[in-house]
Amino acid sequence: MSQIKEAAPAGEAPPADNAVTARNISKNYGEVEALKNLTLDFPRGQLTSLLGPSGCGKTTLLKIIAGLLTPDEGEVLVNGKAVTGPGPDRAFVFQDFALLPWASVLRNVAFGLELRGVAKSEREAIAEKSIREVGLSGFEQSYPHELSGGMRQRVGLARALSVDAQVLLMDEPFSAVDEQTRRKFQEDLLGLVQNENKTFIFVTHSIEEAVYVSDQVAILLPRPSRVSEIIRPSGFRHKDRDAIRRDSEYLDIVDRIWASLRSYVE
Ligand SMILES: Nc1ncnc2c1ncn2[C@@H]1O[C@H](COP(=O)(O)OP(=O)(O)OP(=O)(O)O)[C@@H](O)[C@H]1O
Ligand SMILES: [Mg+2]
Q: Are strands 81-82 and 73-78 parallel, antiparallel or unpaired?
């Protein structure tokens, strides 16, 4: 698609390039106000984390962006077009992996393409590439029960990469794995964000994780649910992966976020 970009007038910032925009979203479940008038932009090619206390509506927002839930008010735009349901431009990486237990890793990874009617040889070639990208080469013929939780998580991620969706929605993808595996995943995720030019929307409960992997962290607070702050870490974003965890800006942001969230932890 060719698009003519007009130069911004002198002194004005160019318009932001947002892959996804959530505009004035409200969603109630019966009496429960899950989201109220929430507006948030997700810049293209970047990773945005949603961070906030349990029950503040993170999963609800992700499902609305995925088109799995309809908001009561407001709308989500993907590339400027209103979302009316699920679509090939968005892929969801579920916390519980959602793998087919009776199918091999290769078939699981290729499954999204199978649903789209892609021919077997083509979808397996694509799946093999994604399996390499997430570091699972050699396990193509294994079954989910033969893998560790961390490896199963990688299968779920490889499946999302295979369908080549532009927007990847990840709901606490690393919560079921041990601390060391999680750190490795976080590093791998940084690499994916740099190499893939996809837009990542990432839900986590871990402040450190959010600050480590994100271009933008949106802090959500409950009752009523709202975006209380948007933080864009800058100084350490392009530093060496290990240096980030020792960086003073990184540590300051982690402290600041904890200060604003601590009173919500029950
Ligand atoms: N299907 C549902 N029916 C009724 N209430 C729901 C439903 N799903 C979510 N809720 C309520 O809506 C609110 C937001 O839920 P949501 O799952 O979006 O929060 P969350 O931020 O993802 O929480 P967590 O961090 O625990 O995953 C909560 O109060 C929850 O109890
Ligand atoms: Mg949730």
A: antiparallel
Q: 78 has which bridge partners?
A: 20, 81
What are the residue ranges spanned by the domains of the chain?
Answer: 19-89+167-261, 103-164
74-115 pLDDT, tens digit per residue, is 999 999 999 999 988 998 887 666 788 899 999 999 998 998
Closest Cα to atom 24, ligand 1: which residue? 54
- CA nearest neighbour of 61 among 25, 107, 115: 25
Is residue 68 in contact with ligand 1, taking CB distance under 6 Å? no
Q: Which of 27, 32, 94, 170 to mutate to test the pocket of ligand 1 (most atoms within 8 A of CB)?
A: 32
The model carries a pTM of: 0.87
Ligand 1 neighbour 32 (Cβ under 6 A): yes
Tokens of 205: 């409960």
In the structure encoding, which two tokens stand for residue 41, read together? 């932009």
* Residues facing residue 227 across a β-bridge: 220
Residues 6+ apart with CB under 8 A from 192: 133, 161, 198, 200
- Ligand 1: does its nearest atom lie under 6 Å from the Cβ of 59? yes
Nearest bound ligand to the CA of residue 63 = 1
* Minimum CA distance residue for ligand 1 atom 12: 34
Cβ(55) to ligand 1 under 6 A? Answer: yes
| Contact present, 257 and 214 (Cβ < 8 Å) | no
CA distance 48 to 231: 10
C-alpha separations of 117 from 13, 90, 172, 190 in Å? 43, 17, 29, 31
CATH of domain 19-89+167-261: 3.40.50.300
